[in-house]
Amino acid sequence: MTDQHKHNGPDHGHDRRRETPDNDHWLVRPATIRKLWWIFGAILAATVVAQFFIHVHGYFGVDEWTGFNALYGFLTCVGMVVFAKLLGIWLKRPDDYYRIEPRLSPDIDSGRDKRGKDKTDQRENRDA
């Protein structure tokens, strides 16, 4: 008897929708992603090639260069990613940031240490 015939009961946490690629959304299929990359690359190349035949009226000298907009878009995207990484380092918090119990005041001691153990029990054990 094969494993397939042994388990006629519940699925045991196995998602059968993932087995068949027909049930996946069309944007998450690897073949579709590859096609979209090729399509977007072809569109980008077509816009750069079109600049050889169509005169671009720029406001500054550099924005009339061939391929300037593609290069500017790429460098801007890289700059945003670098800025986001640096911002993430600056805003990063420890993993247990929200698990720390708030204290009402430095003068008020709840009688418990940081681990939640009663300090009076520790004092009694030390004295004995």
- Which stretches are poorly predicted, pLDDT < 50 over at least 5 residues? none
Oligomer: single chain
Largest sheet: none
Order of helices and strands: HHHH
Shape, please?
flat
- Tell me how many strands there are: 0
Q: Approximately how much helix is present in the residues?
A: 40-55%
Question: What does the model show?
Answer:
The protein is mostly helical. The protein has a domain at 12-91. 45% of the residues lie in helices and 0% in strands. It has helices at residues 3-6, 30-50, 68-91, 119-127. It starts with a helix and ends with a helix. The model has no long low-confidence stretch (mean pLDDT 77).
Question: Which SSEs are present, and which pair or pack?
Answer:
Blueprint: H1 3-6, H2 30-50, H3 68-91, H4 119-127
Summarize, please.
By secondary structure, this protein is mostly helical.
Tags for this entry?
0% strand, mainly alpha
